Amino acid sequence: MRATSPVIVGRDEEIGLLSSALDAVRRRSGRALFLLGEAGIGKSRLVGECAYRAYGFGMPVLRGRATSTGLVVPFRPLAEALSSRFRAAGTPTDPELAPYHPALARLVPEWRRGGSPGYPETVVELAEALLRLLSVLGREAGCTILLEDLHDCDTETVAVVEYVIDNLADLPILFLGTLRPEPGAALDLVRSAERRHTATVRELGPLRDDRVRALTGACLEVRPEEIPESVHRRLAERAAGNPYLLEVLLADLLDTGRLRRTDGGWEAAEQPDASVPSDIVRSWARRLERLDEPVRDLLLASATLGSQFSVTVLQTVTGFEDRALFTHLRSAVEAGVIAPDGAAPDRYTFRHSLTAEALTSSLAPAERASLARRAAGAIEHSGQPLDEDGRQLVASLQLAAGNRAGAARQFAEAGRRMLASGAHGSAVVLLERAHPLAAETERAAVAESLAVARAEGGDLDGALALADALPPVPARSEAAARRGRTHIELAWAAVMAERTADAALQAEAARVLLGPSPPPGRRAALVVVDGYLALLPGHGHAHQRGHGHEHGHEHGQKPRGPAEAERAVLEAAETAEAEGLPVVACQAWQLLALLRREEGFDAADAALERMLSISTEHALPVWRVEALVRLGANAFMRTGDASRLLSARAAATELGALLLTRTVDGLLAMNAVMCARWEEAQEIIGRSTEASARVGDLSAHRYLLLAGATMAAHRGRRRDTDRALAAFRRAGGEQSLLVPLRAGLCRAFGALLEEDRERAAAGLDEALAWELDHPSYYYLSGRYGLRPLLRVLAGEADRAELAEARAAPGGCLAWNRQFLELADAVLLGREKDPAGAARLMASFDARSAPFPVARHLGLRLVADAARADGWGEPVAWLRTAEEFFYGAGVQPVASACRAALRQAGASVTQHRGGWDRIPSSLRSSGVTPREYEVFVLLPERPGNQQIARRLSISPRTVEKHMASLLSKTGRADRAALCEFAAECAAEPA
Q1: How many alpha carbons lie under 13 Å from residue 823 in its C-beta half-sphere?
Q2: At 808, phi and psi to the nearest 5?
Q3: pTM above 0.85, yes or no
């Protein structure tokens, strides 16, 4: 039975490329495309799809293929392509082609004259004649020529193809060629055309795992999730993402009954040692028989080691001396069975993974198991330490030899090492292999490691479910100590996911198992978990709110004040180091860095530097990157410079730490927002927000959503801010540590850009109230910068309150410091010290340079106070701010600046060039820039008084503008006009 997919799977981008090329050809814009890939990768299917779509457009399609017989037949693909068209449609009779008949006679027998073959004198003549023929064929709807397997074609055809693709840019012709990435004239042509931008080259790689599943589902006519997992794993591993091989393997499973349809769906038979398709086995058995016996033995030993193998390991298994070994390897290479691995000089690879499997399948089962057993023993007793790859190899050999428990131990150890190195996904795969193979007495230990690997890989629900299913163990036993460690690690993962209840349950389970006097290392780990739990919303905080139900009281875990908590965590860090628990030590120093922010960022950075040192010393790459990220975040907050954060992101990307990468992306996005680099911020947010949601990384997802809302607020876009904050709320943002940033950095700042100081003050008060009721170590909410400034301007704060803000750790951050300097300048101005105020304004000028929106908002905010108290240059500041906000499209602030300038008796610049911001449809209706300023506020449905306040104009002027807008837009009433304004706002700029 042949299992064939009725649809193409996993090639959406390529199909899109073909579709756009066909559309271009229909507009008389020629295109040349090459599909490059190994045999069976799906090139021909895409060619067929292209032909199908071309036929649908009424295009003539010419399709030919080079021969693989080894015979040299000049122009064979071209002749076949023309024949495929002319057999069905007849030869064209257009008079304008008559001069080209002699040149094309070699390709079109009907145009040959008498006994003369009529060959063209040069290839260029034939190529030009072919180009003219294709142009005539494509005159009405375009023309498509499809040439396959160009790697097997003759050099003449290659020369014709080169001429055609170099000259079809303005002709209605699509050229599509396929070839394998094999050295030769065709590949040289393709690479040259790509460099010269005369052709688009798309290299087809193996299908991803999800696409393999989808293709299997299409073949079996079921949903991908209904495919038995063992079948999917077998096909994914053996076909290596090759669609043709996958279908061949699937057909063999069906033919041999190892996969059958039942009433409940498709069911796989338990045959882990199932062979590859018998025709492949027979083919390779025949080839083996033709090889010398030593070469045959070497290939069988190599195949036992897998599709790729190390020369060193092969020598260990075979016992061949160097000279004999390399002689036999050379013979195998010449036979086309194996090839050197270009990426590793000590390794060779079979031409395809199925080759190795076919070779071993040619052996009797007992012989195959014996060979695997000898190979495993030789590697294990070689005296060389086994790395992760070596353990996996030994595990595979043990499994082939029938030693399931031995294989499980090696898979599990390799998985644990992968887990320790931060490769969580690989660890899960290996431990999942080990789990069903393990002996009954060892299975629980494997499951515990698997639960931790799943949790650290982002699958916390799967980890907790696995932990819940573990069999009970006696309290205070060796097994209980191991199980307690697992629960502590799961508690840590839950803390990092901000899942307070799950973290508390896991910590409690650990305490029950470990008893009232746990070992020092375990006690240190629990202290760290408790410390982080105390920071999460909804976990008591009794020392601040007076509640007495914090988790752990019944087990002696009493709530601690900040100083006591810091001492406990410091002791835990030192204990963890002394006990040889570097991961727990890193967790503790990371927590101390947060707690010590209250003492200042120098103290916090010292804790992070210790964390960096420990992680480097103990080769803990994830924790090292975590330290780099947090040091970079501190540097960015202190100075506004993101360079260290960018270095941390590069380290995270190199490591493959996706969660950390998204965390850094959130920080970089917020940095770009604060620095008004809108396109950069939007690119980061767009790239990472959806990805973080898909994997359930709520912490990063919420921060990215808040960064998007803050960007809208800092651009004065209220509706966009509201939409983004709605998404933030849906993601649980109001139950996170980000509430004060939402209230202050986002909402309050946005209110100031709407000239609504009352609402801004309310937002800043909300942020402060939250922080007073929760432990918070994030200092950009306005408490240490913007709020003191507004209170000073309102006459509500004195120098003592300002000094308190300056002395706090948050007062040293670059973003906050600029506002504190403005507040200090205002107080000095009131105290009749204009020189001192001027010095602070000069400092503000330098400090605020990275933050253009905040800088100009600050100038607007202090200008009124400076004019009233007679210091500084308020008129110049207002003009600078007005020009900036007018250019940024923040009309309320620009209008307020103009109004303040008029009150100061200063001239006001008239922006007669504001027409460019008006959409063409409104501009053609005669809407003026001043009317448009009113129009853009209407989606919020404000009253005339609100509009007047925000634009610093009179209500009567607003009435005139509204009447004019109703007339010019043809709207019946105010409600319809507001609805129209909302529709315009929703359209992309």
Answers
A1: 29
A2: -70, 155
A3: no
Q: Quote the pLDDT of residue 544.
A: 36
In this predicted structure, what is the pLDDT of residue 984?
83
What token pair was written down for 595? Answer: 């707690």
Tokens 């795992």 map to which residue?
A: 209
DSSP symbols for 854-884:
HHHHHHHHHHHHHHHHT-S-HHHHHHHHHHH
Going along 89-246, which residue ranges are E strands? 143-148, 173-179, 200-203
Residue ranges for the chain with pLDDT beneath 50: 1, 69-71, 115-121, 272-274, 283, 540-559, 989
pLDDT for 70: 42
Residue with tokens 């063999």: 252
Count Cβ atoms below 10 Å from residue 124 Cβ, excluding itself.
13
Distance in angstroms (rounded) separating the CA atoms of residues 877 and 821? 16
How many whole angstroms separate alpha carbon 640 and alpha carbon 645? 11
71, 157, 178, 194 from 152: Cα distances, Å: 9, 10, 10, 20
CA dist., res. 312 & res. 302, Å (int): 11
> Residue 342: is it exposed, middle or buried by C-beta count within 10 angstroms (0-12/13-18/19+)?
exposed
For 480, residues 6+ apart whose C-beta sits below 8 A from its C-beta are 473, 474, 513, 514
Ramachandran region, residue 470 (left: φ > 0; alpha: ψ -120 to 50; beta: rest): beta
What's the alpha-carbon Rg for the chain, to the nearest Å? 36
Amino acid letter, residue 407: A
| Token code pair at residue 730 | 């849906």
* pLDDT confidence of residue 486: 94
Q: What is the pLDDT of residue 1?
A: 46
Tell me 598's DSSP state. Answer: G
Q: What is the pLDDT of residue 552?
A: 36
Other beta carbons within 10 Å of 116: 9
Element (H, E) at 347: strand 347-350
What are the residue ranges of helices labelled H in 497-600? 500-514, 520-535, 542-545, 562-578, 582-595
874 contact partners, CB below 8 Å, separation of at least 6: 862, 863, 864, 866, 867, 900, 904
Give the number of other CB atoms < 10 A from CB of residue 547.
11
Structure tokens at 295: 């070469």
Distance CA 253, CA 476 (A): 50
DSSP string over 205-273: -PPPHHHHHHHHHHHHTS-GGGS-HHHHHHHHHHHTT-HHHHHHHHHHHHHTTSEEEETTEEEE---TT
User: What confidence score (pLDDT) does residue 576 get?
Assistant: 94
SS3 of the chain: helix, strand, coil, percent, to 5: 70, 5, 30
What is the distance between the alpha carbons of residues 452 and 431, in angstroms, rounded to a whole number?
10
> What does the DSSP assignment read for 24-67?
HHHTT--EEEEEE--TTSSHHHHHHHHHHHHHHTT--EEEEE--
What secondary structure letter does DSSP report for 658? H
Contact 866, 829 (CB under 8 A): yes
Number of H helices, E strands in the chain: 49, 10
- Spatial neighbors of 683 by CB under 8 A, at least 6 apart, are none
Rounded Cα distance, 821 and 344, in Å = 60
CA distance 407 to 373: 11
Q: In this predicted structure, what is the pLDDT of residue 475?
A: 77
Spatial CB neighbours of 139, under 8 Å, sequence gap ≥ 6: 172
How does 575-585 read in b/e, with b if 16+ C-beta sit within 10 Å? bbbebebbbbb
At 266, phi and psi to the nearest 5? Answer: -80, 135
Burial of 340 (0-12, 13-18, 19+ CB in 10 A): middle
Give, as one character, the DSSP assignment of residue 386.
P
